[in-house]
Amino acid sequence: MGFFGFGKKENIADMVNALPSSGITVLSLKALDFIVPGGWSNYTNFDEMLRSVTRENDETFLASVKNRAIELYEDSSQGYQSAMRLYRLVDSTDKALGTAALADKMSEKFSLLSFLTYLTPKADKAQVIDLTLKLIAELLAFTKINGIPGDSFNDFIKALGEYAGESRMRMAGLVCFDGLIPLGAGFINFSLKHLENFTPSELADNTTFKSMRDEIPGDNDSDKLGFIRRGFVETQGWMKGFIAEHHLSANTVIDKIRAFVDVTEDKLDYLAAFLDISTNYFEHTGTQTLAARLIERAVNEI
Predict the structure, then answer these.
(1) pTM confidence score
(2) Burial state string for 268-297 with b = 16 or more CB within 10 A and e = fewer than 16
(3) Domain-wise residue ranges, the chain
(4) How many CB atoms within 10 Å of residue 301?
(5) Is the model's pLDDT at 134 over the cut of 90?
(6) Which pLDDT score, from 0 to 100, does residue 9 have?
(7) Cα–Cα distance measured from residue 278 to residue 98, given in angstroms and rounded to the nearest whole number
């Protein structure tokens, strides 16, 4: 699966079973364990997750739940497949580095210097729109999983405060990897200022937006830009609270990441690019979130 998950027919159990137990994505998320201490279990086996979520050991019952969860995912009238597409999409659209170059180093400590020839830090404007679109993807995936309208901002903000486990870890990744590290401590206000100046035509040129355009509410690109701006404005309070609660700064996060990435002070500008092209934390944790919600729903229906 990983970066190449499109087009292949998979059920939700297959997707969980295909998740890696090690590698850059897993190590980068583990670096954020100080934010969600012990709160994230990297489930890479659907049956193991099934037992954990249901707290049941009866094999007949577990088989029924598993089958129902798979059925729910495969029902195209539900929003689960669309949610998975969004989780995958925002991780896959800007992969510029061949993952094969990393494949034989997946459990070692990585040297950023080894990959400098592949890395090009994004311009601030591109970083802002990618950060914002990941946030919008999370909002839309949340509404699809829960069967509510895509503009349910209040429900989403309330849910963010209750996020736990892999969902909270995913948002920690968004704040740290796509906000603090590339844009600094003032990334929220900085992003808001840039969003005010974005034009529909600039948005239309963005690769990620092109891929998720049809999922974003609005009759045209101008409407969709308005929705994106509102989404960021509505969630800024949560992001500021999250940063304050965990005393987060770019330096704090970078120090944690240095446990698995060798990076010198003069190469910090490349760290965000390295994480961007060599991790798929949104898809990884999104798969786990989707599986957990499907299991919970299946239990309630049996």
Answers:
(1) 0.89
(2) bebbbbbbbbbbbbbbbbbbbbbbbbbbeb
(3) 2-301
(4) 12
(5) yes
(6) 67
(7) 9
